[in-house]
Design brief:
Blueprint: H1 21-33, E1 36-40, E2 43-47, E3 53-58
Antiparallel strand pairs: 1-2, 2-3
């Protein structure tokens, strides 16, 4: 992390089959495209190099 620039290394995942594996594949695919982040309305937003919103993460209360 440097200023609002962020890079992720290779992600680890299990090879065990689980329901909704497509969600994991989509998430990891989007994570590879992330270049920047910002906070917006208490959410963490990941952006591409062209400032396209790729992922928005929200905290949940337990």
């Amino acid at each position: 992390i440097k200023d609002s620039l962020i890079t992720f290394g290779p992600a680890l995942s299990t090879k065990m089959y689980c329901n909704n594996m497509n969600i994991e594949k989509q998430f990891l695919g989007l994570l590879k495209k992330v270049s920047y982040f910002k906070f917006e309305n208490f959410n963490l937003v990941f952006l591409s190099t062209t400032s396209e919103k790729l992922l928005t993460l929200s905290a949940i209360e337990e």
